[in-house]
Amino acid sequence: MIPDQLQHQIPALIVLTPLVLGLITALIGRRGLGWWIAMLASLLVFAGSIQLLIDVMHSGTYTVSYLMGNWPVPYGIEYRIDPLNGGVLCTVALISAAVTLFARRSVASEVSRDRLHFFYAVWLFCQTGLLGITITGDAFNLYVLLEISSLATYTLVAMGKGRDRRALTAAINYLVLGTIGASFILLGIGFLYMVTGTLNMMDMAERLDAIYITWGTAEPQYQKTVLTGFAFLFVGVSLKLALFPLHTWLPNAYTYAPAAVSALLAATATKVGAYISIRFIYTIVGTDAAFRGAIPTHVFIMVSAGMAILLGSYLAIKQDNVKKILAYSSIAQIGYIALGFALDNKNGLTAAVIHIFNHALTKGGMFMALGVVAYRLGNTRLQDLRGLGRKLPVSMGAFTAGGLGLIGVPLTAGFVSKWYLVTGAIEAGRYEMAAIVLVGSLLAVVYVWRVVETIYFGKRDEGAPNVQEAPITMLVPMLLLIGASIYFGVDANTTSWIAEAAAETLLGVQP
Amino acid sequence: MKDLVVLRVVARWNIPFMVVFGLYVQTHGELGPGGGFQAGVIIAAGFLLYGMIFGAQELRRIIPRWVTDIAAACGVLIYAGVGFWAMGNGYEFLDHAALNPANPGGAEPWGMTLVEYGVGLTVAAVMITIFNEITEGTAPEDEPVNKDYDNPTEMDLPRR
Amino acid sequence: MLDFLHDHYNYWVTIIIMMIGFYAVVAKSNLVKKAIGLGIFQTGIFLFYISIGKVDGGTAPVKVMGEQTDVVYSNPLPHALILTAIVVSVSTLAVALAIIVNIREKFGSIDEHDLNHLEAEQE
Amino acid sequence: MIPPEMAITLALGLPILGALLIAMSRGVPNLRETFTLLTAVATFGFVASLYPAVINGAQPTLDLWQVLPGVKLSFRVEPLGMVYALVATLLWIPNSLYSIGYMRGNNEKHQTRFYVCFPLAIASAVGIAFAENLFTMFVFYETLTLSTFPLVTHKGNTDAVKSGRIYLGILLTTSVCFQLLALLWIVALQHTGGVSGLDFASGGIFREGLAAGAVTPAVFGLLFFLYIYGIGKAALMPVHRWLPAAMVAPTPVSAFLHAVAVVKAGVFCVIKVTVYVFGVETLREYGQGGWLLYAAGATILIASLIAMFQDNLKKRLAYSTISQLSYVVLGVALLTPISIMAATFHIVAHAFGKITLFFAAGSIYTAAHKTQISQLDGIGRRMPWTMGAFTIGTLSMIGVPPVVGFVSKWFLINGVIESGSLPGGHFDEVFALVVILFSTLLNAGYFLPIVYRAFFRTLSDEDLKHPHGEAPWAIVTALTFTATLTLFFFFWNQPAATLAELVRRAVG
Known about the structure:
The complex is a heterotetramer. Chain B is mainly alpha-helical. Chain B has helices at 5-28, 36-54, 56-62, 65-88, 104-135. Chain B starts with a helix and ends in a 25-residue tail after the last helix. Chain D is mostly helical. In chain D, a hairpin with a 2-residue loop joins strand 1 and strand 2. Chain D is globular, with a radius of gyration of 22 Å. The chains are: A mainly alpha, B mainly alpha, C mainly alpha, D mainly alpha.
């Protein structure tokens, strides 16, 4: 179907397409062309990433590798795809495509006309970065792409200034914390490079394994260096991932960004952060050093994750802006992902990987539903949503369905994640974490139901503006994501197949 | 600042040398120390010096914003173009052997040179763009860019 | 003890510079100063990278012409990496400044205390 | 004859299809209500068509699809599930008729939403009844909660919303925190060989695991505890609060969902997990029934005492339901084949009686707009059909002979006598007997005064100024039908008795 030649180039093309088309957008994107180019890029990338994931899953070794410039492995930059990043890649590409379709009307109402081409150029750079982080097999390349995506993100968040000037302060806060996080990652990579002399992730992992053998005997200082590097890396990534208590940048950034940006960020940016965490802990440093070295990192992660789940949900309950409710809910959901990979068993990891995907679908769709509200009402305060269930039946229905997914009602994608997560927690003997996850879903009931009650049982104010359902280009991607989040709850075979394959590769179990 | 004759004269003398030195670093870059990034910064520094002395408006007159926009994008496109050329010919992205299949080793400097020119162009253009972004609308064009430190504005005062 | 300090002086310098930058980020309320602090913070890391590329007795990694075969070169890779990191750092600074300029336009201040105050009023 | 797989598919799918048709025919009430009735009759027909196969010992199965690797959405029709499915779908027919009369008589709003949610709840109930494994049961358990939520909050006012919160809060909390936890624990045990699988199996799934030491008796007991309280719909105290709260719903909802579908789903699940997951023998062997006996006994007595002091008719019925449900749980706790049979039979008996009582309450509300017991003086003369039916229902609740309630109590007492080796010895049996007998007195104590008021007191002056007759014909027909069933079933309870007997064999 696809020529072999082209198929071979897909890993490079996935990153290059949005990059080059982004530049072209910046050049000729005026006159409304920007969106069309962005849409084209997103669709191409999506098609490519699906093809790539299929290649990976059927490759036998579960890996596809691409050498940039044909430089041999430890010297050049390698793009290396296994089930883990193949899955995350597809998630990012799917969400990007859907949100780009959504963005057209939504962004046009929030960003001034003469900046639109700039918006879509940055939008594509953001995608470049996120896709690149996911796909690359080179630690330093990862840092660079992380910064590309972060810089694009800061700019995108700041573009919410047209609607609310607080977007700017949110953006600068995010920038300061994000840069510190990225610097920590850079420093951590430096330490690992110092020990291993390589930047290729697989090569680094192999050399570290060799070094670990000498631990405690010949050169104990390696241990300290590796652990220091890992500590820097982990803290840096946790900032990007918004793992509690390093989440403070997130609520405002999500709340005041343009609706489409919130949807994209909530669904992809933190997920990619989770991916980096998993990659560094499991593939590179190894759980022996990370969890059972000098520092029991997994205990820290579990405590953080537990706090994130409980406090994130609690704070979500207290908010009056629905976007902020979802933002705090994201913090809680990140807790689930972090908990999954801290459990260090197959079910836990599967839960983390599958929740990256499932939560991206759910939260992306819900932020889109709020985008419709913002598009029609101009804001997303809870009190203004009263009685909207009759005015915007489709969007609010989608929001409710997404809310059920957040709670983890059976036959939604969220339930599948929880299924694996709690099973993993019980298998690991962490009954308290299992309990926290379940209590977390109850707190989710409270904050979701608060909105649902307002939507369906509230009375619209006298003289409130008459609103009607959003245009079709906004509804289709929203329904697509919410529909997918239900579909993958009803039939989770594909997602769990990929996630389990990812978990097995990470744990070194032969499939 | 353009009324300060010393600055003006020194700048006028320096700027051509800076640009030429930038070009030297650029052309020398593929095998020795140097390359597109350094060259781009040096060349841009020449223009920025001009902008600082004669005002941002003046800089934008000689290099309009659309020029830097296009230059920045073109630079990256040159870079990517070299890569795509290799891809189109069945090589990996940026495999310079594609430029001269008969002698892959010999093609390396050619590829690097092309790529470095792209980098240089982009870096220079982006540096100027950043300067433009920051100065635009903040400093009225007829006032000097520097502050009057004897009469600090509210912004300059130290905070409690 | 002195040996320990001396042998690892590059780390000490790195740490000191990073902490100076970090202090500015945390303690200064002026956003431009915060941005400068970030720059200093990152510079510390750049120095760290460059220092780990140094090989004892190595020369600059430029190919020595002639017959010599026992030349020890310093590792050029960290320099190349840091070049990229500097670009990133400059871009970050540029984005930060652009946002700060916008903040100044919209809020009329770039002081964090003022901004918090203004935001609380808007609530 | 319809192939069994097809019948199961239709029994599940038809209500959903019906809901779609009802939703599409909004604005045309007659068409909408025709669809409702047709769906009800047809669904019952398909469920009933499975009956011959089941009593002949067959257990038709249907695998829908695999949701997760190793976790299937699948169905198996066994006698216990058949009992529940038959009761639920049979009573849906009079209830639909009744709903039409009630909703029209009271000019309720959002009638389409009401008629759409009803069949969805029925589909969930059938799903629970036929579930082949714990996962399927949990899924439909939750969909039942969610599909009934709009029914409970139907009025949409502050009261309804508040009650809706309690309803959803308690049912979700228990099911997520306890039932889901236990379910996932069992899944985790499955990986280590602690249980033989998620499918319901005769004698339970823990036998080998316990024998091999892969599960400790403590974990086994804990899981049983989690399951019993995780099934909040069984309204075992202290997780019963949702039931009185849900009485804010329109009466057809209370009648059907809170006398039949939802609460019976709860006790049905309790019986099902006891018999097919934990295993009666296994539970007895490891001495896990004792606490449940006391919990159920306490619930019966406390709920009856509370019911005595309720003036609101529906509230009194609600507390009576809580107490009656615990008879079923008590039957389970006795852990003998005959007591399980009694529990199964009581699901049927109580459903017929209680739905009649609720119908009567709604009938009084529709015709006389009265909700309090103290207002009912002399109403029996104005509404003889309603109050006659009410009396029959009352007798069934108390367990007086010519009514079906007597039969289940009879079996229950038999069960107590048969269970010679309860963990705590004789004291437990004496306690169970005392509870049954004393609660019978209490039942009489809070029901008979209503009957007395209705028939033997005279109308107040205030009432004489507001003359009214019987409720609309649809309501009267429905409640007469169920009252007749309650009476009739005492003499001819062949289907239920046969199925209950099959359940008894599965246990023993």
